[in-house]
Design a protein that fits this description.
By secondary structure, the chain is mainly α. It has one domain. It is built from 15 helices and three strands. The protein has a three-stranded antiparallel beta sheet, covered by helices on one side. The N terminus is likely disordered.
């Protein structure tokens, strides 16, 4: 039996900068979560804080596991991964836990997972495989985009059915970003743009009542300040009250007095901005920008088409999640329920982003093999 040989070049090419940046974001997340739940969240601090620390541990283990496997093997398993996630999404609709009017979680003993989060990774992997094997300088035609459209549409439909519009839209944005990255024929792009312009008004009639209410509230939060507009108004008050340097750690009044809703999940950035002000909030945004830049640099330097597309898809996921969350809490986008990567409380979200960063590090560590 041939012994398994460890390539020491992997250690030499280990991306310590990306690992350090990930740990910094996790530390920011824990500190902000401690502040958010110590006074505001129901049930006290300990359950949320301890669970998040456990999920960080699970996430780092998952990241390490992903790094061990050569990312080129993931290419071979793309359809198996995609099919497995679709099966989990179907199981959610059939057997999932119902909470808050949505059926989004599968209960596996003491653990609840949200397969819609993992679906983002599955879509990235399947699209990276499809596009990497059909790279065309002139771009993809409408017919050639039929399969990628199906890869995005099926999980989107299953996720919206839960309902979880925010995660569904994220999958569409990731898919669209990857498709534009590989290039589309000009006439196909014009056709799709025209269809989108025509269909956009019709989408309004397909939305549920609460989804329409969120859009109307985004346009005018004051129309229902104690109802649908409450989240956005209180979030903007918290961010604005932080001013330049903030009120100080654990001193945010909007959080302490429980005016800020969902302060440990979707609106955790409002807690950070209130306590650390414009300076602290800007620094947090800058850290995410550095993470995105590092990911794009990995994609740019990778010579393998699958690795390049895989890296870009991961960057698209992190960018769109952070962009939508920040826009949402500042009142620049409708409230759709989007966690801030590695900062908001939530096990499935933490696990998904950790796996994504593991994929980035995987590609970065093995670039010497494709150069």
């Amino acid at each position: 039996m041939k012994p398994i040989m460890f390539d020491r070049r992997l250690v030499h090419h280990f991306d310590w900068g990306l690992m350090l940046l990930t740990m910094i974001i996790c530390c920011i997340g824990l500190a902000t979560l401690h502040s958010a739940v110590s006074a505001g969240a129901e049930g006290g601090e300990r359950p949320y804080f301890v669970k998040q620390m456990i999920w960080y541990g699970v996430g780092f283990f998952a990241m390490a596991s992903v790094m061990v496997v050569d990312y080129r093997n993931i290419d071979r398993w793309a359809y198996l991964i995609f099919g497995g996630i679709l099966l989990l999404l179907v199981c959610v609709l059939l057997f999932g836990k119902l909470a808050g009017g949505s059926r989004r979680w599968l209960v596996l003993g003491p653990v609840s997972i949200q397969p819609s989060e993992l679906a983002k990774i599955a879509v990235i992997v399947i699209l990276a495989r499809y596009y990497s094997r059909r790279v065309k300088p002139e771009g993809f035609s409408l017919l050639e985009l039929s399969y990628p459209a199906l890869f995005a549409a099926v999980p989107f439909a299953l996720i919206v059915k839960q309902p979880d519009l925010g995660t569904g839209l994220t999958i569409l944005l990731i898919s669209g970003s990857m498709t534009l990255f590989v290039k589309i024929e000009r006439r196909t792009l014009l056709f799709l743009g025209g269809v989108g312009a025509v269909m956009t008004p019709l989408v309004w009639f397909l939305l549920k009542d609460y989804q329409r209410q969120r859009i109307l509230t985004f346009l005018d939060p004051e129309r229902d300040p104690l109802g649908a507009g409450y989240h956005i108004i209180q979030s903007k008050i918290a961010i604005g009250s932080g001013m330049t340097a903030g009120k100080g750690f654990l001193q945010g009044t909007q959080n302490v007095l429980s005016f800020l809703p969902e302060q440990h999940t979707d609106f955790i950035f409002s807690v950070l901005a209130e306590e650390w002000g414009f300076i602290g909030a800007s620094l947090a945004v800058l850290i995410f920008l550095v993470l995105i830049f590092m990911g794009l640099n990995i994609a740019y330097r990778c010579k393998d088409p699958f690795g390049k597309l895989l890296s870009f898809g991961v960057v698209a996921l992190i960018f769109w999640q952070a962009f939508i969350n920040l826009g949402m809490v500042m009142g620049l986008l409708p409230v759709v329920g989007m966690p801030l990567p590695l900062v908001s409380y939530g096990g499935s979200s933490v696990l998904t982003v950790m796996i994504c960063i593991g994929l980035l590090m995987n590609v970065s560590m093995r670039q010497f093999a494709t150069e």
